[in-house]
């Protein structure tokens, strides 16, 4: 018999679709809660890809690639004027 | 095509929310904090080696009182290094191209060195305004010149960093625009321009590292005179 996990502590990927609204309602959206969530995400990534015995280039490259993608999204409103079109 | 070549230097904004703070905080994600292991992971080992190298190099010419500045100078060096290098990735924003940020870094630190000198050893600091061995008739003129050069230091520090990085980014954009425009017209010239672009990118990486180093080195020199 596996112990039932509280809705509050379940990870997002384990939440069933029907439970999603109630899961969102239980989450901690205070500033302290958000900082905690960012810290947990950072620690998960760090311990999986960087804090390993033979970490390679992949760990940091994924972060940089994500940063490039996010910067593209942030600057899209400027970039859309620079496309190769005859009429802008 | 481009509205203006200076569009890349506008502060990023998303739905009216300024994002420059996120661009400035992002380097912190790339620099892990040290844990108490004897053998750390590869990134942390590299980072600790780099920190030791930078700190030793900066603190060599300073006396013991100057060693109190080790943390701020090393962290400033790391900040500028990571911000400059991250700015070379495509589509990213470089906060150090903004004169406001560089002046905000240069001016208080220069003023701190000046006030430290004037407070602890005022005659020594003022003595720096006159180099040794100047002929007597030249003394008034030289003091004026040295005072001007003293007051221009923070301006020079900030503008040097801004101008170098802005010029580099602009050149990259200009030459890449030239490459794209020439590709359908004269492919051979376009290939030549691509090779220029490759060399320029290597230069920009070097400039990013060197400018960070020069900024902090000059600050440590000003500190040396005054502490």
From TrEMBL, chain A:
GO terms for biological process: proton motive force-driven mitochondrial ATP synthesis. Belongs to the ATPase F chain family. This is ATP synthase F(0) complex subunit f, mitochondrial. InterPro entries: F1F0-ATPsyn_F_prd. It is a single-pass membrane protein. Component of the ATP synthase complex composed at least of ATP5F1A/subunit alpha, ATP5F1B/subunit beta, ATP5MC1/subunit c (homooctomer), MT-ATP6/subunit a, MT-ATP8/subunit 8, ATP5ME/subunit e, ATP5MF/subunit f, ATP5MG/subunit g, ATP5MK/subunit k, ATP5MJ/subunit j, ATP5F1C/subunit gamma, ATP5F1D/subunit delta, ATP5F1E/subunit epsilon, ATP5PF/subunit F6, ATP5PB/subunit b, ATP5PD/subunit d, ATP5PO/subunit OSCP. It comes from Pterocles gutturalis (yellow-throated sandgrouse). Keywords: Acetylation, ATP synthesis, CF(0), Hydrogen ion transport, Ion transport, Membrane, Mitochondrion, Mitochondrion inner membrane, Phosphoprotein, Transmembrane, Transmembrane helix, Transport. The chain crosses the membrane at residues 56-76. It comes from the Eukaryota.
TrEMBL record, chain B:
InterPro entries: ATP_synth_F0_asu (IPR000568), ATP_synth_F0_asu_AS (IPR023011), ATP_synth_F0_asu_bact/mt (IPR045083), F0_ATP_A_sf (IPR035908). It is a multi-pass membrane protein. The keyword Hydrolase does not apply. GO terms for molecular function: proton-transporting ATP synthase activity, rotational mechanism. It catalyses: H(+)(in) = H(+)(out). The chain crosses the membrane at residues 12-31, 43-63, 69-89, 101-118, 138-158, 170-190, 196-223. Its main location: mitochondrion. Keywords: ATP synthesis, CF(0), Hydrogen ion transport, Ion transport, Membrane, Mitochondrion, Mitochondrion inner membrane, Transmembrane, Transmembrane helix, Transport. It is found in: Mitochondrion inner membrane. GO terms for cellular component: mitochondrial inner membrane; proton-transporting ATP synthase complex. Belongs to the ATPase A chain family. Component of the ATP synthase complex composed at least of ATP5F1A/subunit alpha, ATP5F1B/subunit beta, ATP5MC1/subunit c (homooctomer), MT-ATP6/subunit a, MT-ATP8/subunit 8, ATP5ME/subunit e, ATP5MF/subunit f, ATP5MG/subunit g, ATP5MK/subunit k, ATP5MJ/subunit j, ATP5F1C/subunit gamma, ATP5F1D/subunit delta, ATP5F1E/subunit epsilon, ATP5PF/subunit F6, ATP5PB/subunit b, ATP5PD/subunit d, ATP5PO/subunit OSCP. This is ATP synthase subunit a.
């Amino acid at each position: 018999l596996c112990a039932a996990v509280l809705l509050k502590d379940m990870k997002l990927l384990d939440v069933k679709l029907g439970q999603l609204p109630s899961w969102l309602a239980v989450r901690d959206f205070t500033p302290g809660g958000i900082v905690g969530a960012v810290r947990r995400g950072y620690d998960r990534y760090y311990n999986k890809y960087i804090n390993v015995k033979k970490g390679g280039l992949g760990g940091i490259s994924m972060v940089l690639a994500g940063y490039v993608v996010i910067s593209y999204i942030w600057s899209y409103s400027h970039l859309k004027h620079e496309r190769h079109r005859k009429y802008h | 095509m481009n509205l203006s070549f200076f569009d890349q230097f506008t502060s990023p904004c998303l739905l009216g929310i300024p994002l420059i703070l996120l661009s400035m905080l992002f380097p912190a994600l790339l620099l892990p904090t040290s844990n108490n292991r004897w053998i750390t992971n590869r990134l942390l080992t590299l980072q600790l080696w780099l920190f030791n190298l930078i700190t030793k190099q900066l603190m060599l010419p300073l006396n013991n009182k100057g060693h109190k500045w080790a943390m701020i100078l090393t962290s400033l060096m790391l900040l500028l290094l990571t911000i400059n290098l991250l700015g070379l990735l495509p589509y990213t924003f470089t906060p150090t191209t903004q004169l406001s940020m560089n002046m905000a870094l240069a001016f208080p630190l220069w003023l701190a060195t000046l006030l430290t000198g004037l407070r602890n050893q005022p005659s020594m600091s003022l003595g720096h305004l006159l180099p040794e061995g100047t002929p007597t008739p030249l003394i008034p003129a030289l003091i004026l010149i040295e005072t001007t050069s003293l007051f221009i230091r923070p301006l020079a520090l900030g503008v040097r960093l801004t101008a170098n990085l802005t010029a580099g980014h602009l050149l990259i954009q200009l030459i890449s625009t030239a490459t794209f425009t020439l590709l359908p017209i004269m492919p051979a010239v376009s290939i030549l321009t691509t090779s220029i672009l490759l060399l320029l990118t290597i230069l920009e990486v070097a400039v990013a590292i060197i400018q960070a180093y020069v900024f902090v080195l000059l600050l440590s020199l000003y500190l040396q005179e005054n502490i």
